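Expect chain and fold; thus:
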Amino acid sequence: EKASMDLVVVLVLSLSFLLLLSLWKQSHGRRRLPPGPTPFPILGNILQLDVKDISTSLTNLSKVYGPVFTVYLGMEPTVVMHGYEAVKEALVDLGEEFSGRTNFPVTAKLNQASGVIFSNGKRWKEMRRFSLMTLRNFGMGKRSIEERVQEEARCLVEELRKTSASPCDPTFILACAPSNVICSVIFQNRFDYRDPKFLNLMGKFNENFKILNSPWLQFCNIFPILMDYLPGSHNKVIKNFAEIRGYILEKIKEHQESLDINNPRDFIDCFLIKMEQENNNEQSEFTTESLIGTITDLFVAGTETTSTTLRYGLLLLLKHPEVTAKVQEEIERVIGRHRSPCMQDRSRMPYTDATVHEIQRYIDLIPNNVPRATTCNIKFRNYLIPKGTSIIASLTSVLYDDKEFSNPQTFDPGHFLDDRGNFKKSDYFMPFSAGKRMCVGEGLARMELFLFLTAILQKFTLKSLVDPRDVDITPVFKGFGHVPPLYQLSFIPV
């Protein structure tokens, strides 16, 4: 009896303490931070935001509080940058100060602070520099990255042929292709699309991406204590992760046994050589742990994003047959029917280039960027943002700016063409974010999108099962990423 009374007293005291702490932190922190809606104790502004569509919630708040404002996700303040000017000022002009990464309790649990995406400081700088250099075609042995993507484009076309022009859901095939490019870059070889090991690996990444996108996991990031005591899908993520790590470790061991320092075959070889060079450096960031973390990051960031963009892209092309026809006319004129598309073709194909850009702008894949953090105390537009504060840069607000893009709610490749039909660059094109933390795989992703889409449209006519006017292009998920609805189409060989 007494024990349970004591427990109640302890609970009440702890809760009261939490409430007071939360109120104190909020009032103390809010003095110099940008304005924003008044937060509730402990919960912050979570009830004022639509968890299923944070991006639109932030746009609505910016109408009230301006381009720079503060929201509380739980007890921690997050400063939001909305609109091109604020986003550019933070991510580009003050790149160094805004180049930190928030500590995500979920990824910390997975030990992912060892890779590129969630690391900070010296480790992040070194992993990033190394990954960029290696992905830029240097030191990858005899085959350039472009050749690897072209090979995959041919395999993708073959897989699509096997559907024999009957209606199919392209999700799976379009996920295999980018994933395989990453496999080729990291492990040297691509897999057959029916290889059980490959399918198992893809399944795990896919399941993790879905779970990490769920509202439950957003809550776990805000209230990490939930993960330690409650059952839930976060445990599935941890289990999947352990299996993925096991597979990667096995591959690293195989590489170590057959390594030829003068002839690196892939990313793992390049990394192992670097580890060898830094053997005597106690402080070296090039450890097996970092290698596993970096490989996982390349997989996670390089598979889902590109495959979702391709899948959404084909859906938009079904909706807009007039755009598809123009792209196919340009492919026919510049490349013809028989030669494989290559990156040199892009400069002679302004309409196709504009279409790929417009797909990325329109789908606005990662609407709120991956949250950043300040690396020091910083004065920003007369506000004081303390070191370690989370920063959200709304990419939606840049990609949908109506001063830059005449009709942002409409899918129109003309947004990236001038009066004479030449390709027109835009500083507002930021699907890969901007500044010091912009996507490491940007070059690879843009190469894949161009080569895969042209290869598909060179060899097939896309046939919708419904009238183009009835094709639904509204995203089904609007959490961390915009995911298109499921759909079917037929690939009719040209």
